[in-house]
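Continuing the batch. This is chain 6 of the set; chains 1 through 5 are on the previous pages. Same settings as before, nothing changed between runs. Recording input and output for traceability.
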Amino acid sequence: MDKETLQSLRLAYGQSPDNTALRMVLVRGLFENGEAQEALALLDGSDAQQLEAADCLLAARVLLAAEDAERALGFLAAADCGAEGLLLRARACLALHDHEAGLAAYREAVAQNASLEDPDLEKSLSARVTPAKTDDDGKVVGFRVISNEDKVPVAAAGDGDENDAPPPIEPSRASIRFSDVGGLEEVKKIIHRKIILPFQKPAIFAKFRRKAGGGVLMYGPPGCGKTLLAQATAGECGAKFYNVAISDILDMWLGNSEKKLHAIFEQARRTAPAVLFFDELEGLAGKRQYENSSAAVSKTISQFLSEMDGFAKNNTGVLVIGATNVPWSVDAAFRRPGRFDRVLFIPPPDREARAAIFKIHMEGRPAAGDIDFDALARGSSGFSGADIENVVETACDIAIEESLSGGHEVPVGMAQMKAALKEARQTTGEWLSTARNYARYSNEGGQYDEVIAFLQKHGE
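Output for chain 6:
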């Protein structure tokens, strides 16, 4: 607002000092022109109950700039000021050292309008505040702020000693079910019949001398849900889920890898029913001729085989699931009965599965009503579940950028989805090309028959 217009407003207000609307227009002009003290003086005669929500927001901004947080809260309480009012309330509470109320207001503001997110404000509100100084009457006159980052690190037990016994692996606390996995209906039926039912109906299986547990090998292109399906299997069984990484086992010290592997199996046996999940299984169970006859690697593989079905090893209630993208690199000894005797091909999702995966990944996100999941599924042929997740994440990034630039929340719609789909590329093609060659020329015992059937169904 230019100075001439501002001066005209002053004159007009001088003629009508009871005109509340005119007063607030003048307050806004003064505040925007940096004349905060004059704007503050005009607010002394304002009744918050008579102001519109926009004027209450303006008054709160002026008062916060003048470091009068208590009066600012009074104006904010007089009207429903929406998300912006909640954000100003959070700033006022921070100034008054009421961090709990401020953090609650901040989170509600962001929930209503995500474009208002302010990490620095949230960090300040999350800090703990303690009285640091009082006057002679005991009134607090100073505060000490303790950041959440002011923590003393605790040394882990056994640090510095390579020969310490390996610590137990904590089971996953997440409860994932088959409903959280899009598609793979036929695979789910096989898992339910061969794996889950023995856990759920142990009595009848015991009569037929069939034990719950054993080994399952899942293979297929990367990103098609092997890990998620393993977690869901544990959830359906009501079993603890142990996600065993290669780094949890392999050790530079001779003999430690075998000790760690034994400790992990022993823990699973003690806490049965349990699911042990080994991702990238080829790293622990690779063909021994590929390892240049390394004694250390051979001993680890032998220990693994022994833990799965060795003499006096009772693995009842322990399900061992291995996942690999390169099944042709897994040692053949792992695929005999009693070890990974159930082999499941996890294919790329079909059209119906892709639509379901899009829906699952959009749950809980701001979404417009124009998203056509069937159209997205038709336009994402060959995409893995991970590829689809990436499309959704990219669409959300586009919506966030539009929200921040526009100053209001923009939900994810078909426009953002189409833009994200243009940027994405499917990642299953290379794997299928390699698998086709193994299925044609190295299909001993029909181990890749499912791959051949998949390629024939969907066109090589």
